[in-house]
Amino acid sequence: MVDIATRVFNQNWKIDPIVRSLLDTDFYKILMNQFIYRNSKGVEVKFQLINRTKDVSLVDLISEEELRNQLDQARMLRLSRGEATWLRGNHFYGNEMMFSPEYVSWFEEFTLPEYNLKKQNDNYELTFEGAWNEVSLWEIPALSIVSELRSRALLREMGKFELQVLYARAMTKLWEKIEKLKKLTNLRIADFGTRRRHSFLWQDWCIQAMNEGLGEKFLGTSNCLVAQRRELEAIGTNAHELPMIYSALTDTDSELAAAPYEVLANWQKEYDGNLKIILPDTYGSENFFKNAPDWLAQWTGVRIDSGNPILGAETALRWWSSKGEDTTKKLLIFSDGLDVNAIEMLYARFSSSARLSFGWGTMLTNDFRGLGINLEANPMSLVCKAVNANGRPTVKISDDFGKVLGQASDLNRYKRVFV
Amino acid sequence: MVDIATRVFNQNWKIDPIVRSLLDTDFYKILMNQFIYRNSKGVEVKFQLINRTKDVSLVDLISEEELRNQLDQARMLRLSRGEATWLRGNHFYGNEMMFSPEYVSWFEEFTLPEYNLKKQNDNYELTFEGAWNEVSLWEIPALSIVSELRSRALLREMGKFELQVLYARAMTKLWEKIEKLKKLTNLRIADFGTRRRHSFLWQDWCIQAMNEGLGEKFLGTSNCLVAQRRELEAIGTNAHELPMIYSALTDTDSELAAAPYEVLANWQKEYDGNLKIILPDTYGSENFFKNAPDWLAQWTGVRIDSGNPILGAETALRWWSSKGEDTTKKLLIFSDGLDVNAIEMLYARFSSSARLSFGWGTMLTNDFRGLGINLEANPMSLVCKAVNANGRPTVKISDDFGKVLGQASDLNRYKRVFV
Prior knowledge:
homodimer; 419 residues; alpha/beta; nicotinate phosphoribosyltransferase; 6-stranded parallel beta sheet; 5-stranded antiparallel beta sheet; 18 helices
């Protein structure tokens, strides 16, 4: 029997929308958003979509019209009543509300602001300008729209059963990964794959498969919408955006040197426990720890998001030890370019030194390599970053050469200051 | 949105029925059924389910209650109006109706007759007794019910996503087979997998995947219900049942020796073209051809259903040549224990000698070997055969030792007569 209502409902869409809810975003974006809403009203920023995969041209795959249609559609979204209720219901260990009534009320009125889209040679220039807390919420929908439009383009010519077999292969591939991960006794792992996912429906499937396959080893997902619908834990803390913009807004070198710590000092006024996670690599992890204030050593954990994860973890462990902390009580979160082999290796190496947690992204939600479709199906590395704040350029150095952001003169100054 | 109607509809079933239509059977059963209806009214037969896989106990897997529920449910089925219309619409190359109005009217009133079920040590004894044309229609539903109940038993403990991955693996496995078969330029292949299928829904999927993947190389399916619903060709001719019962009904040795040819002489009064297919192995193919009347060499083809298929095909080709026939116009149908390797081998060997066609059964619709579930998921060899007719025992010799049927004294007589 055809479900006539569903059929007619779908006829109302001009397009098949990729992003259908403002909660279809990462939890840390909302945690950061409330933080920005309270602490940095009036800061104007510019975010830009950047394609780090130089050999893939988005213009060849995605038409400007379909990209505009999806972005326009996302701008029509409003938080629903149930979504607002879910946000309000997020508590710190049952004590305090994570999101204030004022913030949720603001979010209920929120719609995504305008975007600027231009064709630039072989790529699109997609930027968002305006109030920080508004523009910031474009990051994840912009990335997941481009990522899924690319998937749709790659799958366009396939037959119905060919497609079903493709997904069958992808399911099998993921399940084999899950069966390997299951063997790691004290594994704690979460989905961090919203931004570069193959598609929303596929991410939703992957998360449910992880939940069934890994049971208690699966912590939850960074995706708020899936967390809400599937009754899972929403996972996330903070990101480079905060120190990058705090730093860009400083005037003197000493203010700049203090900015990455100042943002965390403000953060701990808002959030507690598992949300007190240090992301040390924005301007190089070694220097971050060298200059870090003592109070920061009491935070819950460190997230390793670039560079060699073994070196990154060892640096954090040494730092905690030097501050007299018991590392086995500390949390190391690995979240950069993970796949099963890396997870197994890091688990073997560090599971007796600290509590571990893994934020698994692209290779969880978009690993279609070797499944018999176009080779281009290798996931691409797209980011959407703040490039300036109040007209001043942002800088990111990170522990990876490929993730550097900023102009030469600014980079030199930052490198001099963060030594 | 939940489709409430579907949900409520499903609530009406006491069980999830395996066989939901009298057309969920092989086309040759209906072709033979009309033949029996017209030629052999009044013959009383007994059919019996036989488990050739001695190491699998059905009693351990399937409860008597669930088996009875499924058999009882099948007895409630009646041909629907649309199904009768489909039967009436089957023509010989657009000329003549394949099924007479009288026969279809009879079928519209038909329900499956009673069954006898007893637990016998580690197996069920399941038999059907009564008018040949009524009892005969139990063969396929009885087999597919037992086959699917076994699948359900093997899958009972699996989680939802574990199950989905199992089917994902099975889909991938079949698609890889299809991709290999696609390379055989003039391949002609049909689904013959109803009786030992994993389940109805899985067979339906396999057939559609074959149809999309192989295009014109896929001839259709022996399953009438899927043929009707998916608008495919229904494929089939005749089976051992006819010569076995014709032979059992004879009195003298000379009548017995003539019986396998007499049945074909009657068959060609009813059917034409691609339905004039010889199945020579009931009492040994070598002897069948040695003693065959000349007119039989003009029939369209030979089906090779037991023994070494290379020897079987060579025997048929030699026989046609000896009768002055052009073998390249003749059709060889291979239908015994096929999988991709055997199909490729037979195709390479015989595609220049004759027209070829493959009837692919168990390894198309029930190949779950090596997919990570219970080893017992190897398909089993179940048959449902006529064991006597008007009280006289039937005999089958075949070209395979494992397919022999009958008591020693009868076997000796048959071996003596068919030399």
